[in-house]
Amino acid sequence: MSKKQTALLGVCPIGKFAFSHEDAKVQKSKIFAKLNEMGINTCNIEEVLPDGLVRDQAHVEPVVEYFKGKKIDALFVPHCNFGTEGAVGMIAKKLGVPVLLWGPRDEAPFEDGSRLRDSLCGMFATSKVLYKLKVPFTYIENCTVEDRPFAEGIRKFMGAANVVKAVKNAKVGQIGTRIDFFWCTIDNESELLDRFGIQVQPFDMVEYIERIKNRAAKNRFAYVKELGGMSSWLIAEGIDQNGLVNSLAMRDELYEIAEKYGIDAFSIQSFSSLQNALGEGIGLGEAFFQEDISIAAESDIHGAVSSLIAEAASAFTQPSFFPEFTIRHPENDNAVLLWHASAPLSLRDTKQETVKILPPWILKGLPATSMQFRFKEGPVTVCRFDGDAGEYRLGIGEGKMIPGPYTREVYGWMEAENWPQWERRIIEGPYVHHCSVVYGRYAEILEEACKYIPGLTPERFDK
Q1: Please, which residues bridge with residue 139 across strands?
Q2: How are the residues of the chain apportioned to helix, strand and coil, as percentages rounded to the nearest 5?
Q3: pLDDT tens digit sequence for 389-441
Q4: What does the alpha-carbon distance between residue 445 and residue 315 come to, in Å, rounded to a whole number?
Q5: What are phi and psi of 234, to 5 degrees?
Q6: Nearest Cα residue to 226 out of 295, 293, 284
Q7: Banded model confidence at residue 367, pLDDT cuts 50, 70, 90
Q8: What letters, b where the CB count within 10 A reaches 16 and e where it falls short, cover 318-333?
Q9: What is the Cβ-side half-sphere exposure of residue 433, based on CA atoms within 13 angstroms?
Q10: DSSP β-ladder status, 199-203 and 171-175
């Protein structure tokens, strides 16, 4: 799927005539070796310039043209001996992608007082030019490629670049219209497109249901066989097999739609058309599908964007889940229940060997569609893209999933450092009770990404 493509980093080594060109080439080789070791997706300018180093203002246009042709998503300008600051500024300005500034730590002067490079000094000059040209950039402290700040800085920057790439190209599939009483998920589709380039692709609910039924009938034998292989962990006592077959057909229909239309995340009406038309067990299909592409419940377009952002921050190594903030922990003042009806099965507690399907306990009378499992313990990052009237924020916080009392459907208890502070910031807006959650710690990446998304302001719930 399109969203799995991580950012391509254009590496543009910078030199200067006044310092050792040979040493600059040595530093450049060390940089590429380290990036390769880290598995970073890169392209360079070896085909464009002698020795693959920018050393003159005349190098700007060929480098810009080459990187645009490669469709890079981010730019790294390592200062290999000093820095041709004007060229760096114009390359960065013309490309308009996230920019990373760093240079190798300089060794001690030789006995005669001379030096091979002044990389730190050159970066001071370049940073002024970037500031003057209003080019946002990320900086890694002056260190060697083997020092911890270099690897940490690269990973943080590439995570931010993944988020920026995901938002710029985001396409949300909207299945069904907003439920009439969900005023909190009203959004401005035109504004999302104009401000962020986020597209919403609507799908008619009636046609969607019809396609699922046709797929289920055509592939029924294969789906029944697949369900038979789940008997060791899936408890579906009394669940109509037709509904379970429909759930797998829905999974495959979502995959086909995503592939055909380039959908990165979905927003679904949730109830009650799907349940009434397709029957029991459809939460199973959603749980499988969400391993690869997120689904925001209750027609929450902003929630779908939030989930895409959270997954991009992890370089798409982690599926997200889409719960609601519901009740505070009965004994822990800094913990809250994250709860909803479906989530990726891989996120369940490793001690829970089986998964049940039961009717929703709130919406009486609907078919049994709700998955039943608790989330695994561990650190998590919460984010929420939201806004109104032209003001958009990305709410961000880190916490950890902890043990807590049993409840129905998919659930887990998240402990924050200061939940009352989170609660107040979420209440005072522009947020809602929905959030997107991914395992791991990515708050700094999300904050950094906002630097490169005009009109999106980061707000930490946990600071």
Answers
A1: 101
A2: 40, 20, 40
A3: 889 999 999 999 999 999 999 999 999 999 999 999 999 989 999 999 999 99
A4: 11
A5: -100, 120
A6: 284
A7: confident
A8: bbbbbbbbeebbeeee
A9: 15
A10: parallel
Alpha-helical segments (H) within 189-291: 189-196, 205-218, 220-228, 241-261, 273-278, 282-289
Contacts of 62 (CB under 8 A, 6+ apart): 48, 49
Domains of the chain and CATH, by start = 2-168 (3.40.50.10940), 171-460 (3.20.14)
342-361: b or e for each residue (b if 16 or more CB lie within 10 Å)? bbbbebbeeeeeebbbbbbe
What pTM, to 2 d.p., does this model score? 0.93
* Angstrom distance (rounded) from CA 194 to CA 455: 11
Predicted local distance difference test score (pLDDT) of residue 1: 41
Tokens linked to 113 = 């007082």
Q: Which ranges of 358-457 does DSSP label H, i.e. alpha helix?
A: 419-427, 443-450
CB 170 within 8 A of CB 294: no
157-186 in b/e form (b: 16+ CB < 10 A) is bbbbbbbbbbbebbbbbbbbebeeeeeebe
Contacts (Cβ under 8 Å, ≥6 apart) of 255: 289, 292
Question: Per DSSP, what are the bridge partners of residue 43?
Answer: 10
d(CA 204, CA 174): 9
Is-contact 24 10, C-beta < 8 A? no
Q: Whole-angstrom Cα distance, residue 374 to residue 31?
A: 44
At 433, which amino acid appears?
H
- The Cα 349–Cα 101 span in angstroms is 41
| Max CA distance (Å), the chain | 87
Give the helix/strand (H/E) hosting 405: none
Q: Which of 83, 165, 85 is nearest to 131 (CA)?
A: 85
